[in-house]
Amino acid sequence: MRRFMESNVKSFIATIVLALLFVLALVFGSRNEQMVTISYFVAQGEYRLPMVLAVVFLAGFLVSWIIAFFYIIRLKLSLKSARKKLMSLTATQQEHDA
Question: What is the pTM of this model?
Answer without folding.
Answer: 0.59
